[in-house]
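Action item from last week, closing it out:
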Amino acid sequence: MVETVAAALSAHGLMLRGGFNFTDGEQAPSGLSGAAARSVLLVGQAGAAPWPHFLRWKGSQPQTIANPLDTWSREVIGAVAKKFGARAVSPSDRPYLPFQQWAKRAEGLKPSPLGILMHPQYGLWHAYRGALLFEDEIALQEPRDVIHLCDACLEKPCLKSCPVDAYSADGFAHETCLAHVRGQNGAPCRTGGCLDRNACPYGTAYRYPPEAQAFHMAAFARL
């Protein structure tokens, strides 16, 4: 079944990002019927593969539609969930579900200094768009051990490229970043994306195109 779910998602540029079975006694979220889920499959992207699919959908929607990427993701993943008898959930659902913890558990990834999980192939250019919750246990492979590329990166250019030092050992200075992106000197970030993220030397073949990065930055800054 995992292969057929993956094929249904790939038609929209999305992909399965691993999964796992909840353990006995674990407080799992509910599945489609309300009973506790037994398995979860994470849905996401590598690079900008969903971008043309999303743009075609967006072109048929009212220009005033709120949170279009979340809406598109829910629509696509929800349709796949319905086909396979699963419950679809999203990272923006309230109350929030532990998507980052699920991702680390499913793929064995660790956070980069920017907080984004570092992938050994995709670098920082990947994302999780939702998950499928099943009430039956699915046969899944255990995540393999992966190299954490940040451990081998001595220069850490991702912490040296932002003009306002939004990322540091102290964490992410959200308000400082937001003020800069919205300000007169924030044009490079608004049009080409986060300078720290783009400075990472890994996974550059999967880097989002400038228009996709500008879209995400506009959503961040509410521009």
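Closing note: Strands lie at 15-21, 39-46, 87-89, 110-111, 117-118, 126-134, 167-168, 171-172.
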